[in-house]
Design brief:
Elements lengths: L2 E6 L7 H9 L4 E4 L8 E5 L2 E5 L12 E4 L4 E2 L1 H13 L8 E3 L3 E2 L2 H14 L11 H10 L11 H22 L7 H16 L3 E2 L1 H10 L4 E4 L23 H8 L6 E9 L2 E3 L11 H11 L11 E3 L1 E2 H11 L3 E5 L9 E10 L2 E3 L6 H4 L3 E8 L16 H14 L3 E5 L7 E2 L3
Parallel strand pairs: 1-10, 1-11, 2-5, 2-10, 5-7, 6-8, 7-9, 11-15, 14-16, 15-19
Antiparallel strand pairs: 3-4, 12-13, 16-17, 16-18, 19-20
Helix pairs in contact: 3-4
Length: 425
């Protein structure tokens, strides 16, 4: 059976967790393929909210095998704390598999992340300071420690000694910070964390392919989103991995021909956290209204999100970067009270019109959005269970987004709950 990828089409926080949870009911396996605990997924089940960071969203279903793939960077203490919290709420996490090839986030990664952001000052990237970027940097520099190293204490200590020699020089000579002791790290990771993680660690590439060959339906779940992608996002205000659909292959071990359905998640408006360009950004009372109605604060960090009108220019770019087969539109209900809604259908800069984002960052920072104005519906849609129950103007809004992005919309979210969605005919 082919695999389905769920990918964010904006700057994250589109509702990937909820959609993954929705799609997972028809799957046998959910694989997280990149990112770390810098991204949170919030799922509401019977009025109870679950905030997930590293564990794949499908863990809430007893029939799902959740897998953390090789493309993820893992803070083992955070992962175990998340698992403990789920167990305390009655969730069975015994099926979780963790790739031995996934890289570990180490204490020095977190310290360097904090120091780098602080020293950048006004040029800070707005990272979550949780060590994700430095961990991926070490992976690329081939000095990272992997999950499998937890199973070989001798190798772990040898690799740790090598990398700490460099990291401590940076900490002490550049940042005037105390050196980090290898012994303390080894005791924590090998004595406290490794014994608990060991039963979960394995060859996830083999497991995923075996499941695929046996006819299992597999869902691949990323963190962050298209425009936070290291290669295709608004660099340097991006994450340190590849959330785009292509990253699902490298981060899970599946091949491109195994992917046949690629579902893009998009909010009915748009948000981003931290610094970086945002052509359709709003401020003032309207922005505060969307933040309040949409509860636009980070699941993990609590940071307030910036908000703006739906950007079809970005959506078109996301469609071609990911080969989107469909779009799931979330949070349509947040727009319920507005009398009119704007949609960015193009950019203009220096007398040039753009249907797709300009490649040069200086131009992107200077674009003026071209808007279409649509009438609002000023009706509470949260009780809708069928698409036909939506107000006419709400249906017209969805149809307009389909037309301007060129991608069919298959699911529309009308509230935060697990069952609060409708499907256009």
């Amino acid at each position: 059976m082919p695999a389905t990828v769920v990918v964010g089409t904006q700057w994250g926080d589109e509702g990937k967790g909820k959609l993954t949870d929705l799609l997972a009911r028809d799957m046998e396996m959910v694989v997280r393929y990149q990112g770390g605990h810098n991204a949170g997924h919030r799922i509401v089940v019977d009025g109870v909210a679950f905030a997930l960071q590293l564990v794949p969203s499908g863990v809430l279903y007893p029939h799902i095998t959740p897998v953390i793939g090789n493309g993820v960077v893992i803070d083992p203490a955070v992962l175990l704390a998340e698992l403990d919290a789920l167990v305390a709420r009655g969730v069975d996490v015994s099926r979780l598999l963790v790739s031995g090839n996934a890289h570990l986030i180490m204490p020095y990664h977190q310290e360097l992340d904090r120091l780098t952001e602080r020293f950048l000052g006004k040029n800070a990237l707005g990272t979550t300071r949780r060590g994700i970027g430095p961990a991926y940097a070490d992976k690329s520099s081939r000095v990272g420690l992997r999950v499998q190293d937890l199973l070989d204490p001798k190798i772990f200590r040898e690799k740790l000694d090598v990398v700490l020699h460099e990291k401590n020089l940076i900490l002490t000579k550049i940042y005037n910070r105390p050196a980090i002791a290898a012994r303390a790290i080894a005791e924590q990771y090998l004595d406290e964390l490794a014994p608990r993680l060991a039963p979960m660690i394995g060859d996830t590439v083999g497991v995923v392919h075996h499941a695929l060959d046996a006819g299992a339906r597999i869902l691949l779940e990323g963190a962050q989103a298209t425009f936070l992608d290291l290669d295709h996002g608004t660099y340097p205000f991006v994450t340190s991995s590849n959330p785009v659909a292509g990253g699902a292959c490298t981060g899970s071990g599946l091949g491109p021909r195994d992917l046949t359905s690629i579902v893009g998640i998009a909010k009915a408006y748009i948000t981003r956290v931290g610094a970086g360009p945002f052509p359709t950004e709003l401020d003032g009372e309207l922005a505060e209204l969307l933040v309040e109605r949409g509860h636009e604060f980070g699941t993990n960090t609590g940071r307030r999100r910036r908000v703006g009108w739906f950007d079809a220019v970005m959506a078109r770019q996301a469609a071609r970067l990911n080969s989107l087969t469909e779009i799931a539109l979330t949070k349509l209900d947040v727009l319920d009270t507005l009398d009119e809604i704007q949609v960015c259908v193009g950019y203009r800069a220096g007398g040039v019109d753009y249907d797709y984002p300009p490649y040069h960052q200086s131009v992107l920072h200077d674009v003026t959005p071209v808007y279409e104005v649509l009438p609002g519906w000023q009706t509470d849609i949260t009780a809708s269970t069928k698409y036909e129950q939506l107000p006419v103007n709400a249906q017209r809004y969805v149809a307009f987004l389909e037309e301007t992005t060129g991608v069919p919309i298959s699911v529309v979210g009308v509230g935060p709950g697990r069952e609060q969605f409708v499907r256009p005919s």
